[in-house]
Amino acid sequence: MLTPDQVQAHNEARQADLEADVEHLTAVLARSGKSAASVIDSLEAFSVAAPSWAVGSGGTRFGRFAIGGEPRTTEEKIDDVATLNSLTAANRSISLHVPWDEPTDPAALKQYALSRGVRFAAMNSNTFQDNPSTTENGRLTYKFGSLANADQAVREAAIEHNLAVIDLGVKLGSDALCIWLADGFNHPGGADHRRQFERVAAGLKVIHDHLPSGWQLFTEHKPFEPAFFATVNADWGSSLLLAQAAGPKANCLVDLGHHLPNANIEQIVSRLAMAGRLGGFHFNDAKYADDDVTTGSIKPFQLFLVFCELLNAGDGSLPALAYMIDQSHNLKDPLEDLIQSTEAAALAYAQALLIDRAALRAAQDENDAALCQELLQRAFRTDVRPLVAEARRRAGGVITPLEAYRESGYRQAKIAERGSDAVASGL
Ligand code: PSV
Ligand code: MN
């Protein structure tokens, strides 16, 4: 982690320039009645959880190349997230994935994380791979599904695993369980759409009913992969039906990479919010499908429109949902990618805050399409980077996180400590 002295030394050298930029932007925004100070205040409170499975390098089915110095344990993953947060001041929690993370002493792990300023965001269960502890040493397998499996014993094992993940999360101070299922089938006629769906709905209800008060269950949809012909929870409609069947504490989680090409994700966000069942996000970006690349790197305008819908849902302020990053870092240093993704989410949020919502609504009611576009573009084209940097500085982070990370020599130190061939758990 960067020490407060290191943060201060880094910022001192850049503060005068930042102040000048913020002053200029404050004056520009004031001309259209917008307050830079209130945008900075909102940004200061913004945090997006880092995934424990993405502080190591990700792989594709064609191979995996270790980045060097990858975390070998959940404690080391927490160290990486704490370092990330000391730079960004906007990654204050980590999302664990079980059994990739399987702490033997949850109370000690909780203390370990809290002492480094990191909390536990939503827990994730894994029934898309066989796990000896829940599939009885190979007797049962998730090869043909988990909650949707035709075999009741497999369904029960999958439910048991989810209940155990909730119990673990309670000990860690988490308050949500996110369930993404690979369940589905690859060949037409290979299973019955309806019976699979009904089994999943029944399983989710049992899991839901195990949630302690204050907890939520997230259903995460994805159109395909690894199931190719049909996935049970393939889209937001299925996800909504499953959440409704599970119970009142179940909400839908939108992973930005889990849509077919050209899907209007911002409209999906609006629909789920309208139904009162929008629970959270997995941020990432994609050109084709579930590419899991850096948030905002390919479609920053789409990300901006998603934040516009979130602000619509919160009547001008960001609803308190579970905001998480879910990416796979094949080529970049994962911490550098997470720095850039966190920045991209904050930029989109800041730009969305700049929209003159009253003027937009009036223009919509007048069917003035040109003015509507003008109002969106005015916000989207504003270079809000100084506001994001200033919010980060005020929250205790550094003005230029990527630069500070590289200067810190963190990766080289971890390669020396953990080894150049250390491989983190995950896909
Ligand atoms: C599935 O592609 C997913 O988006 C789910 O959130 C999983 O938990 C995660 O990726 C696994 O890498
Ligand atoms: Mn996801």
Descriptive report:
By secondary structure, the protein is of the alpha/beta class. It has a single domain, classed as Divalent-metal-dependent TIM barrel enzymes (TIM Barrel). 47% of the residues lie in helices and 11% in strands. The chain contains 16 helices and 14 strands. It has helices spanning 4-12, 15-31, 36-45, 74-88, 106-114, 152-172, 193-209, 236-246, 265-274, 300-313, 334-353, 357-365, 369-380, 385-394, 401-408, 410-418, and strands at residues 50-51, 59-60, 63-64, 93-95, 97-98, 119-120, 123-125, 176-180, 184-185, 216-220, 230-231, 250-255, 278-283, 322-325. It has a seven-stranded parallel sheet. Helix 10 (300-313) links the parallel strand 13 and strand 14 (322-325). Helix 3 (36-45) crosses helix 11 (334-353). The structure holds alpha-D-psicofuranose (PSV) and manganese (II) ion. Alpha-D-psicofuranose (PSV) binds next to loops.
**Roughly how much helix do the residues carry, as a percent range?**
40-55%
**Poorly predicted ranges:** none
The residue-averaged pLDDT reads 96
Question: How is the largest sheet built, in terms of strand order?
Answer: 5-7-8-10-12-13-14
Count of separate DSSP helical elements: 16
CATH topology: TIM Barrel
Q: Report the principal-axis shape.
A: globular
| Overall tally of domains | 1
Separation, N- and C-terminal Cα atoms? 26 Å
User: How big a fraction of the residues is strand?
Assistant: 5-15%
Number of strands: 14
